[in-house]
Specification:
Length: 239
């Protein structure tokens, strides 16, 4: 039995589990498909799932809700598409600095953290990050930015981020993090500054093995850490 032969409520329930791009494609198959997959309730469900923070006021009984939050006049599909385009454009602007850097060029820790903070101001959702920053063709540093944003700012559980990395086929991408620490004092003399280098996969950053590396990236150059650099691959490795 095909999807179109199911009761409407069942068909909509199944459709709500699909990607927005798949729903748009299905809606082009026939007139009946268009009627089902252009349904306002379907696109409202997709919008609420992707951007739950937008509708927080509705659950508190606030009277400050605006037509922009509840776009009945324009239709939920139009709202979803317009907001997706807006999110995509603003996110690309926020990560433009990293995107323009050659893949093997190390990024300074301060610049990396500023990129993360720029995304925070956009209030990207977990789905936004997967659609915008977890693409396999992107610079691995952009994938890393998405991972960092999800774990530290959105506080998404590690297992869910891991599932997203694997689903997007970027979990085995590797990044190299270097940091320099102030030399320790030894019998009244300060020893040479220490250099640390770690090459880990994105998946390893979500485990105990990569916890210290993610911690260094989160703190940046502070206290005893003098400098932090991150790159897709170790630019000083001759192999």
């Amino acid at each position: 039995m095909g999807l179109l032969h199911l009761p409407l409520d069942v068909a909509l329930k199944i459709a709500s589990s699909l990607q927005a791009s798949d729903i748009c494609a299905l809606g082009c198959c026939s007139r009946l498909c268009r009627e089902i997959f252009d349904s306002d309730c379907l696109w409202e469900s997709l919008a609420r799932e992707r951007w739950p923070y937008i509708y927080a006021s509705s659950s508190t009984g606030s009277s400050s809700s605006t037509p922009a939050k509840f776009p009945i006049s324009m239709g939920w599909k139009s709202f979803y598409i317009l907001r997706h385009i807006e999110i995509l454009g603003r996110a690309q602007a926020a990560v433009k600095f990293i995107e323009q850097c050659p893949p093997s060029t190390p990024i300074e820790g301060g610049d990396y953290l500023r990129t993360i903070l720029g995304l925070r101001d956009l209030k990207l959702s977990f789905i936004d990050v997967q659609m915008v920053l977890f693409k396999p063709q992107l610079n691995g540093l952009l994938n890393l930015v998405g991972l960092h944003y999800c774990t530290n700012l959105l506080e998404i559980p590690a297992y869910r981020v891991m599932e997203a990395l694997q689903r997007c086929k970027i979990s085995e991408k590797h990044i190299c993090v270097k940091w320099w620490k102030l030399g320790r004092w030894f019998y009244g003399f300060r020893m040479r500054d220490e250099q640390h280098t770690r090459r880990v996969s994105l998946a390893e950053l979500l485990t105990a093995e990569g916890e210290d590396v993610l911690g260094v990236l989160s703190r940046g150059p502070v206290h005893e850490v003098l400098r932090v650099q991150v790159s897709v691959s170790d630019p000083f490795d001759s192999h």
